[in-house]
Amino acid sequence: MSAASLRRAARESVSGLPRAFWWLWTSTLVNRLGAFVATFMTLYLTLDRGYSASFAGLVVALHGLGGVISSLVAGVMTDRLGRRPTLLAAQASTAFSVALLGFMEHPAAIAAVALLVGMTSNASRPAVAAMMADIVRPEDRVRAFALNYWAINLGFAVSATAAGLIAEYSYLAGFLGEAGLTLACAVLVYVKLPESRPERGGAGAADGSGGSGGSVDKGGAEPEIGLGSVLRDGRFMGVVGLSFLISLIFTQGSVGLPVAMGSAGFSPGDYGLVIAVNGFLIVALQIPVTRLIEHRDPQKLLVVSALLAGYGFALTAFAGPVWAYALTVCVWTLAEIVNSPTQMGLVVRLSPVHGRGRYQGVYTMSWAVAALVAPLMAGFMIDRWGADWLWATTGVLGTVAAVGYWLLMRGLSEGAAGESAPAAAGGTAATPQETPLPTTSGPVGAS
To answer: Averaged over 332-353, what is the pLDDT?
Structure first.
């Protein structure tokens, strides 16, 4: 590809998006630049504090439990109170709780504050995803969410490398650094981001000129959406269940992998460099790969990505030197790049306008439950049987997820390309059951 083609592709990727999106994008980037707790909690507990892998798994599981609790609550708050107040409350409370965690000494106190951190840090996800769906036109959502995911991983790649080096000298500095950057995000949201929640019976998001920006949604004819309605949506809950299996695999990158590398004698800096490969590859490949796959069959993409994820982690059992661990990260990172825009496109397309918060909350819960189960699974397997059993299990989970995607989407791909969720011209959102299965050219959710 010529330099001119690359410049044209770059311009096409960033042009035409509302100003509010870019402030939200900036908030995401700053937040991820400070990511420390989720990435280095297991190393902090096992190497710095000397606790067992099982205790580290328990603490990280409590962090995940907090996310399970807050996902549903934050989803309801996002629909009832609005996206902006939910985001502000989540980020301000996250800054406080992360700083507090760095000073905890007693094991019970560490566990309790980790639960609080899990609750606060996951509470922003439904609001971010719903706000993006509000402010960006349906035809622009693929690249908007790809750009947001790109920002997440750019921040992660930088923070993983820097935090790995910081951790070798002071874990407390990492906790305080994350708290400071999260607080900066709260200030940015307060100063720059307007509320974007669509009004029932009237215009939702504004005109795309830089305020709330993007699409106009009118929800007067849409029935009231409660959590019960979401849980009874069979197709959507099938996506949530498969998301849980995929999340259970990917979460091992931050819970099973650092413990296994630590047990093998590698330093936090070694792990930081290896896991940074994940972020850097996503930064380099997410947008071009999204452009390549956006019109492909989503069934095939999800099946292939599930297999790549499962067997990419399974290959870790054969890794020896640092570069071999990095190669396995390359395999499952490709799975993540393909799976994220494809799977999360289903969520936004299946979510009615005035139920976006609740739908995103339930979807986020699949990741939160995985964050609860994955460390318990990793700690138990590594302590009892060794890391190789954990990596074999990821291969099995990837196979099960691939079969699940094939069965869920069999016979449903035809006629999936049409937009049926909230229309840019102000049409009423379809109910989840009426929404045809999307292709990846539909909206993509935030991670």
So the answer is: 81
Cα 144 from Cα 101, distance rounded (Å) = 34
For residues 95 and 100, give the distance between their C-alpha atoms in angstroms, rounded to a whole number.
9
d(CA 293, CA 36): 32
Please state the length of the chain.
447
Residue 218 pLDDT exceeds 50: no
Work out the pLDDT band at 222, boundaries 50, 70, 90.
low
From residue 280, give the alpha-carbon distance in Å to each of 56, 277, 373, 440.
27, 5, 27, 23
Distance, in Å, from the CA atom of 260 to the CA atom of 316, rounded to the nearest integer, reads 9
pLDDT digits (tens, 9 = 90+) for 92-125: 999 999 899 888 888 899 999 989 988 888 788 8
Q: Do 93 and 100 touch, CB atoms closer than 8 A? A: no
Q: Which residues of 335-370 are buried (b: 16+ CB within 10 A; e: fewer)?
A: bbbbbbbbbbbbbbbbbbbbbbbbbbbbbbbbbbbb
Instruction: Quickly list DSSP for 42-69.
Output: HHIIIIIS---HHHHHHHHHHHHHHHHH
CA distance 19 to 210: 4
For the chain, the average pLDDT equals 77
Q: Which of 266, 260, 229 is nearest to 359 (CA)?
A: 229
The count of other CB atoms within 10 Å of the CB of residue 188 is: 17
Q: Burial code of 51-75, b = ≥16 C-beta within 10 A, e = fewer? A: bebebbbbbbbbbbbbbbbbbbebb
Calpha distance 78→357 (Å, rounded) = 5
Residue that is written with structure tokens 């292709």 in the block: 439
Handedness of CA 124, 129, 132, 133 (dihedral sign): negative
Local structure of residue 212 (DSSP, 8 states) = S
The span from the CA of 184 to the CA of 190, in Å, is: 10
Q: How far is CA 240 from the centre of its chain?
A: 13
pLDDT of residue 313: 94
Phi then psi for 216, rounded to 5 degrees? -115, 125
Write down the pLDDT at residue 175. Answer: 87
Q: d(Cα 126, Cα 67) in Å, to the nearest integer?
A: 11
pTM: 0.67
CA angle 112, 116, 122 (to 5 degrees): 145
- Mean pLDDT over residues 374-389, rounded? 84
193 C-beta neighbours (distance < 10 Å), count:
21
Is the pLDDT at 153 greater than 50? The verdict is yes
Helix (H) or strand (E) holding 161: helix 141-167
